[in-house]
Amino acid sequence: MYKHTFYKHTFYRQIVVMLNNLQTNKIETGTFVYSAAFRPVSTTVRVRRGIVLLLGALAFFPTGKSPARTLESVGLDLRVTPISFPNPLLAPATLIEFSYVISQSGLEFLTDSAGSQRLAGIYADVVLFDSTNTPVDSSSQVYYTRESNVGGERSVVSNRLRLAITPGSYSYRLTVMDITSKREESRSNTLNVVEASRDRLSISGVEFAHRLERVDEDNQRNNPLVKNGRLVTPNPLGVCSIDDSLIHIYAEIYNLARDTAGGYRMGVRVELVESGALFPSILDESFWEVEGGSIVFAKSIEHKTKKPGKYMFNLIVTDANAGITDTSARPIYFYDPETGSFFADGAAGADGFGPDPYDTTSLETRRNIVYWLLSPRDRGMMESLNDVGQQQFIKQFWIDNDDNKATRVNEYRNELIARFAIANRRYSRSIERADGWNTDPGRIIMQYGEPDERMEVAIPSIGNDVTDEHSWERWNYDRIQGGVYFIFANDRGYSEFRLRHSNAQGERFDSGVEENINRIFRSTGG
Hints:
Layout: H1 10-20, E1 26-29, E2 32-35, E3 51-53, E4 60-61, H2 71-74, E5 79-85, E6 94-103, E7 110-111, E8 118-129, E9 135-146, E10 156-165, E11 168-178, E12 184-193, E13 202-203, E14 207-214, H3 217-220, E15 226-227, E16 230-234, E17 239-241, E18 246-254, E19 264-274, E20 281-290, E21 295-302, E22 309-319, E23 324-335, H4 363-371, H5 376-383, H6 387-400, H7 411-427, H8 440-448, E24 453-456, E25 472-477, E26 484-490, E27 497-502, H9 511-523
């Protein structure tokens, strides 16, 4: 049902015929080309669950130079980035946008009958599988692209497909096929979809763009790259030149709380964190008064990055009326257009992008990163060693916990470094912002990662522990021990959260607050 084999036979021939007989009446917007004679053809399969939405478009952008290669050796070089848009209007489903990019040099182009341009036809589909590997939904598209000479061998074509998916654990397979040559590539990965919230601040994934501009109503028609009145040219890999002065981003913010006067207020902070760095560079800070509870945040933000490499881009939003903060983060990569390199000195580090920043961190920082990951016995053993012994102990710890020793990347270590930075940024009490890892919320993040859901509910004080009725948070982890939660209390209003109760094995359990807190969370739908 989900196979696209039929495109390899009769249907792809029909498209090739259409490509060869294209008329000259075209609508052009920048580098986008749409044909009145050949419209995108879409095939959709609907089964059991989900809503299928289709979006077909094309874009070209230069990414530097590379040695010439044959068509057979190049391939399509398919890359895929899913982006989540938990729009409450679709709740409980979440809209997932599968942005993808392929190499133009892997396509076989045909000259049209007029001999004026060279075109290639592309078929793409994404298939969603449930936990039993059964197909449950899909979306597909057919479109054509005109050969671009702007970026030479490394010009690419980017596009996206969309599915509205109900909460659950899935996997997906996205396939792209060059209709002329029948060459195809697929990428598969797991996908965890969390229920879209209807009443709590949430942010979509950050979408990077090569172009971001407002368009008038006339230009919005039949243009699938337009979202909420803005032309958003996708940059699925988040690749930017250090010569580019702007980072174009698109995101959606949902469920802002309304104040007594009917207004909505929010603070926005944009950060850029170099790989391995503990402190961010602040690109933008602003305060907004908006008209609705859900808005689009689309902005071109100036940056002064001159060092190639991998960075983390953080979009941090605070609902001023509710006192709640949420963060959306994703990697962004800067390259040097003169050398075409992502590496500052030509040598790849442990993450594949530049020298490994971990090599320059202090022994104290390395100890802090692994501290909560060690058993009490191993922790005592490490602390009994001298500096050289501790360095070797920590090095061996990462070797023992490298799940894929065949690669240069230690994904587990990189994940823990990211958790360490998040814990320090959110929960540090010192001006240096370096002790958040040693707080109760910081420890939970280091040991378990980010929660699947974070809830803040107005709860009256229990005993003499807490006087602030907005001082309780519940973190839910669906993927651990069959589902566990942690409940934190603000320490007498000083914004220092402490763990009060959890049903996780080995964590603090307080029967005195278990029934009261669960009753209140149940009454609020938690």
